[in-house]
Design a protein that fits this description.
The protein is an alpha+beta fold. A three-stranded antiparallel beta sheet has the order 1-4-5. It has a two-stranded antiparallel ribbon with strand order 2-3. It is flat and about 35 Å long.
Length: about 70
C-alpha cells in the first residue's frame, strides 16, 4: 500500500485517522496515516460499521489536498 518510514521527528506526525501523533506510517496525498490505522483499515470488512468511519476520515485527505492547491 505504501512505504513505511520513520518521519524523523521526535513527536511524529498527527494521524489523519486516529488523530494521535505517531512516528511510523504512510502518506496519502500529503496526509499521514499511522501504521496501526493503516493495518486496521486493510483488515476491516466493508460491512463493519467502523469502515464508514475510515472512509469519512480518509475523505479529509482529499479536502486538505484541495485546500493546499488553492
Amino acid at each position: 500500500m505504501g512505504k513505511y518510514y520513520n518521519t524523523q521527528s521526535i513527536l511524529g506526525e498527527k494521524c489523519l485517522i486516529c488523530e494521535k501523533n505517531k512516528l511510523e506510517g504512510i502518506h496519502l496525498f500529503q496526509s499521514f496515516i499511522c501504521m496501526d490505522c493503516e493495518r486496521e483499515i486493510v483488515n476491516t470488512k466493508t460491512s463493519d460499521p467502523k469502515y464508514q468511519f475510515f472512509v469519512y476520515q480518509m475523505g479529509k485527505a482529499r479536502i486538505l489536498q484541495e485546500r493546499r492547491q488553492a
